[in-house]
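Hello,

Our lab assistant flagged a job as stuck in the queue for most of the afternoon. It eventually completed. Since we weren't sure the result was trustworthy after the delay, we are filing this so someone can double-check. Below is the sequence as submitted and the structure that was eventually returned. Let us know if re-running is recommended.
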Amino acid sequence: MQAISAMAIAPNLYEHTLVRYTDPLHATELLRQYRPYLEMIPSMRRPQESLIPIPLPIAHIQIPAATTTNQRPQVKSVIVPCDLVFVMCDPEWKVKTDIELLVFIHRPGESFTELLTRWRQSQVLLSRSYSWDMPLPHRDVFSEGANRQFPLFVLFQDTLAVIKRGLKAARLPYVIDTTILKEQPSSGTKLMTGSSESTQ
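-- returned structure --
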């Protein structure tokens, strides 16, 4: 029965969720379900200028000169294995803050190990100096990497219980998204979290 449940997460459900939270207003709705992250938004009066969602983000990572044959650092562009990054930005100064939120949407057939590995791989990639490939409307925003990255996992009703238990045991916050079933964006997300004190 568990194997059947895992396959029940259809690709269109994943796509729907990714598209939904690419919209800054819906991204804010998602964070309303986890107040510690909601409070990181610089200005709730101007959420579309304060929170910039980047789907399937590309990071330009600097490789120190000591590990290359050239004097200047090399820059390598990679796709970070999260589904979205929420870049926090000061709406007045057009400068990003030192906090970023990495969103991981449970993909069809993805196991707990695979889901958690995507977060660990993201941590390793972003441990170097980096900058984001920003969306065109936000190219003027200073986009160098943040000092702190925080994960948020988006699961579904059909996500296996072992994945929920694993995230809770690892003290990683997650929400259960039901918007596609209820068709009510403002009330369609249920919070489940291991702990807000530690994301490591």
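-- support follow-up --
The delay was a queue issue, not a problem with the job. The result is valid. Residues 2-193 form one domain. The radius of gyration is 17 Å.
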